[in-house]
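User: Teach me something about this protein's shape.
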Amino acid sequence: MTTEKATAASIARADYPRPQFMRKAWSCLNGEWEFQFDDACIGEEEKWYSTERLTAFSRKIQVPFAFQSPLSGIGDPSFHDIVWYRRSFEVPADWKGKRIVLHFGAVDYSAKVWVNGNLVATHEGGHTPFQADITSALADNDNWVVVRAEDFSRDVSLPRGKQYWKEQSASIFYTRTTGIWQSVWLEPVSRVHLSRIRLTPDIDRNEIRVRAFLEGLRSSEELTLEVSVTYQGKLVAEDRYGIRQNEAMRTIGLNDFFEHGMGRLWSPEHPHLYDIHLRLLRGEESLDEVVSYFGMRKVSIEGGKLCLNNHPYFQRLVLDQGYFPDGVLTPPSDEAIQKDIELAKALGFNGVRKHQKTEDPRFLYWCDRMGLLVWSEAANAYAYSESYVRRFTREWQEIIERDYNHPCIVTWVPLNESWGVPNVQVDERQQQHGLAMVHLTKSLDGSRPVVYNDGWEHMTTDLLTIHDYESRQEVLEARYASVESVTGSMPSNRRLFVGGAAYEGQPILVSEFGGIAFKKSEWEGWGYSGAENEEEFLQKLEAVVRPMFDSPVVQGYCYTQLTDVEQEINGLLTYDRQPKAPLEAIRRIMEGRR
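Assistant: First, the predicted structure itself:
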């Protein structure tokens, strides 16, 4: 085994864009790119991607910020559905002999990529990564990468989340994101290399299941994979085994139970992580080295109780939409990500429901490391169509594949409030689509609960989740006094179950509530109820939160919301992350302390 091993923490501090699957050698392509609107849709016809037509684009943009955001250097929220990017790049000399891979964290919504005039990649899906082996397209000098991104601003069947289909933000809908909005980078690999890994912890057996996927392996080759696992810098397990196929699975026992006991388990209170180092060998030649990490963590439902690490666990979540005044969907820095997590924890929450956004992997990395539960929710469409089903199903699979290893993720939420399936109450096709998403998710990951349709109109679901913006304490107390009163209610005048489905003993969580609007910044806007001053704000907060703790049946909540977002001013924090009341006063309420 190699004697000097990087760790997940040491590499991620350099802002490596993919902290769950890291290599030492990489080159960041973020920064200034040439940029051009293509409102007339003439770029491809005129071959703007060609090296023979290198007339400079008329604008500059700071990648990875979308042109709608101030940090992009443009800050134009109007409709421009087709945009082009271009920049030159160099391949480091010491990468000679390697395959060169170009990575995109996310491009909204569809993308075409050329290198030196050669089409190297196409991708559809605004929230998931893609890559291309560009080795054969490289020149000895003066390499150029060109990206054409196309969004569909007015298409309500597009999985878009909170991005509004009108030019100006309004109500609960916000500024759009078009084009590149996550990191772009280069990476050298050998012809045969690791393409991804799946890490599945089993705390009951004290084992980690490692499933390694290879790219470029030929049928006649025999390789070796070395795996070592460390905890707090100390080796706890190692293994070495032969690889003859593009996919290999190994279960590794962790020999540290008597030393670390239950204290080694991951939780928001104790976010302990193991580092895992993988080295792919041909004989003694090292072909690839990857560093990752995992948490020994279990999410389960036992006797109707939602459990973390085999113990009932009350989830105190806050709705987090992941918008920033200067970056829109793109965090302005790693420090901004950490600040949001620190504030959520300081306010008394042990988790977030990422709402209508698949978050940047670095957010999930910091939740893993700092200790914050995450409900992973897709960005939904608003209208149902066959095109929507095709688009959404593929992108959701890519989301699960990308984020499977993160211990912070404890629930999958493919659908929210019947968005994309607005007629699910009576339309059997839409009901079956929801069921298909539940079963598809479970076919890819059996280790986490799956919510059918967060908020209401459920069918097969692991959790009964309810959205309820009632502001009167006495009404909430009566509604959540028993299972019968819960299942007989219709918050927002919506049925909790449809299609003949009925309550079957699932854990009950109020996964949206509150939404108290309290203006404490220059933004004008609205919320679900209102307060005129800090004292009234805290009183109304107590009135909606107290019934969640007093209920004998509610096993968790998600308060709306962490921050104001543009004109929606029902955050506990302003849009620029300033508390609307003392942190400790809010924390006392959110933790149920009297």
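Now, about its shape. The radius of gyration is 24 Å. The chain has ten helices and 31 strands. If you'd like, I can walk through any region in more detail.
User: That's plenty for now, thanks!
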